[in-house]
Amino acid sequence: MSTTVKADQTIGQQIQSCPQIRASIDTVIEQMRSRCDQITDVRGAIEGLSESYEAAMQRAGEVRGRGLLYPYIGSGAGNGALVELGDGSVKWDMICGIGVQFFGHSDMDLIRMAIEAGLDNTVKQGNLQSNEEAFAFTSTLLEHASKHSKLKHAFLSTSGAMANESALKVCFQKNAPASRVIAFKDCFMGRSVAMATIGDSAAGRVGLPAALPVDYMPFFDEVAAEKMGHDRFIDMSLMHLQQYIDRYPGQHACFIFELVQGEGGFNNSTRDYFVALMECCKANNIAVWVDEIQTFGRTETMFAFEGLDLGEYVDVACVGKMSQACATLFTEEYNPKPGLLSGTFTGETVSFRVGQRIIERLAQGDYYGDNGIIAQHHTAFREQVFALQAKHPKWFGEIKSVPGTPGTTNIVGGKGGMLRFTPFGGHKDPVVKACRMCFDEGVILFYCGHDPYHIRMLPPLGVMKLEDWPRVFERVEAGLARVAEEL
């Protein structure tokens, strides 16, 4: 028989508040800060470490079954936007794990959260047994999501793909027996079988069976809209959507919306375009599912649907990457029946603690708004690209665009902290090569899009300084110059 013990604190609370433990954490943080503060600029490998690093790279390739895209194995240390690799070299990190480290490397506030999380009695938390951290993170997330939408509940997942899987199940159950999905051309959803089926990438599903029927809509095309007129473009797109609905009456469970396409090229749309499609969905009992896994926290508002004033239409939304823990958010109407969503793990204690702190810092800081930190960085980035174009106009020819792909004539674009520019006409080979050359020169970039291809950045704007941009683009210029010389 269990008995109740009267005490002011649980043992767990006593551990977290113990003065000796807190002092020990302070010592660890002080020692880490004193070392990480020594990382101040790009540098080459440390003499004597190259051989062991090459061995580590070879071992990584053997374990994975193929070599790494970049020769990147981190040392475990960095300083803001600078990251140290295992060979001692230091590079500007402008991709941050595809957008995971918004507050950069070795952020002492977040490391403190992680150390405190290590005091917990478990590493993993689960659906059957969770500690308070999971619910504190979820409550903080919903507090901000619900300000501009009807999103009320959330289910935690260990990856963005699993968050999307949960969203798909919620939509299917609510709108059963509907079994079709509508998505945008060039969308990316994740690497599970179902998400690879929805994602518009043939290379991502080679050899995989189709898991469900998907109908593709055109994403907003600024070039086409300018040529035919914005309203006419919307009318044509609505006609396209209505054809799917008429062809398969009552069979569409949801329309998945990337409000800013990520892998597809950091493509933007107007609010009017989304509103027209979402209102059509509402009229036909099709769930509006918003994928914010890459946009969360990164645009000029915490949620992209907030900045576009679309919250009233959203039934289901997913977040991830920057939030550390991933989640599927849904309205009361889409709250699923018991048994639909479950799983052994919901995430790690460290992910919940760090994720909650990130959301708190985003809300408390001056990141958002027309003149917020994110908007200022976007402007600074654009200025650097245009200066580079003026200096090297031959590197920026006419942008190649394939019909049916969101068109652009702008060499610079994106939204908020989702930044992209388009050298070498957007041709794939030189763009991919530019990323690798820039890596060698000391800045980590990646690419996105499909004819045209773009160089993209997801920099750590939570800690990056505006005066860092010229230093970053000095390295970018060096990398592009090597490609231009070869061309």
- Secondary structure class reads alpha/beta
Query: Mind telling me the C-alpha Rg?
Result: 23 Å
Q: Could you name the CATH class of one domain? A: Alpha Beta
The CATH topology label of one domain is Aspartate Aminotransferase, domain 2
User: Proportion of β residues?
Assistant: 15-25%
Distance between the termini: 79 Å
CATH superfamily of one domain: Type I PLP-dependent aspartate aminotransferase-like (Major domain)
Largest sheet: 7 strands, mixed
What's the number of extended β-strand segments?
Answer: 17
What spatial order of strands do you see in the largest sheet?
5-11-10-9-8-6-7
Q: Which residue ranges are poorly predicted, with pLDDT under 50 across at least 5 consecutive positions?
A: none
- Apparent shape: globular
Count of helical stretches: 16
Share in helix: 40-55%
Describe this structure as you would to a colleague.
With 487 residues, the protein is of the alpha/beta class. It has a domain at 124-364: Aspartate Aminotransferase, domain 2 (3-Layer(aba) Sandwich), CATH 3.40.640. Helix content is 41%, strand content 16%. The chain contains 16 helices and 17 strands. β16 (446-449) and β17 form a beta hairpin. α5 packs antiparallel against α13. The longest helix is centred in the last third of the chain and has 19 residues, at 373-391. The termini are far apart.
Quick tags:
alpha/beta; 16 helices; 41% helix; 487 residues; Aspartate Aminotransferase, domain 2
Write the layout of secondary structure elements.
Layout: H1 11-17, H2 19-36, H3 50-64, E1 74-79, E2 82-85, E3 90-93, H4 96-99, H5 108-117, E4 124-126, H6 132-145, E5 151-157, H7 160-174, E6 180-184, H8 193-198, E7 214-217, H9 222-228, H10 230-247, E8 252-257, H11 271-283, E9 287-292, H12 304-307, E10 316-319, E11 326-331, E12 345-348, H13 349-364, H14 373-391, E13 412-415, E14 418-421, H15 428-441, E15 443-444, E16 446-449, E17 453-457, H16 469-486
Parallel strand pairs: 3-15, 6-7, 6-8, 8-9, 9-10
Antiparallel strand pairs: 1-2, 2-3, 4-12, 5-11, 10-11, 13-14, 14-17, 16-17
